[in-house]
Amino acid sequence: MKIYVTEDYQAMSRKAANILSAQIILKPTSVVGLATGSTPVGMYKQLVTWYEKGDLDFTAVKSVNLDEYVGLDPTHEQSYHHFMQTHLFDHVNINPANTNIPDSLAADPKAECEWYNQVIRQLGGIDIQVLGMGHNGHIGFNEPGDAFELETHVVNLTERTIQANSRFFSSPDDVPRQAMTMGIKSIMMARKILLMVSGEDKADAVMRAFTGPVTPQLPASILQLHPYVTLVGDKAALSKLMETK
Ligand code: GLP
Fold it and tell me: What residues line ligand 1, using a CB cutoff of 6 Å?
């Protein structure tokens, strides 16, 4: 695993954007796995800036998003569809037909997940998967205890995740209780992983994920077994992990 420790959030965002843009420049037809949450916002902003300068071209890029809430209208401010439009897709020349996110309003979310697995296969798999991480070590919406062998599936969100994500909603009651997420198996099949972490509140989870046992109780710990992980974090988030090195 390659680890980049950066001074702060902004430098983490720039480093992650560097890595993702290198992928796109070297392979313009890349399939990029994208993530939402507050962590990658600065990375998307940097990518948009470089696109506007003419340094990046998304014409042939294909994207697959990690996860989406069940039942939230795609136009809802907190839907991950809306997040991707606002932070990236509306500002670069990616072909909307080349972007994929599970359909939050699918009548049958389970069937939607099956279909999503097919989409990833038909694209030939993911070249690089961007990940953030929850405080309980969740990646995508793979909560502690989720089976490692799953591909895209429906999950019930834990109380901790609902509370953490409620900061984006008017109240915790408004946070959807279910989501569709690529499973650990889907994530592990990506050729490369780019994990981003920021802030002292993640330091404990990062340290346990990479120094402790590989266990479904801490989903990110599975990344210890992936052959090509780049961890980009600010020094606050990596403080405890670096103490162990
Ligand atoms: C959400 C998302 C994850 C994200 C995580 C951390 O639950 N489903 O993909 O990595 O929260 O979010 P943040 O980056 O806001 O800390």
Answer: 35-39, 66-67, 132-134, 140-141, 161, 165
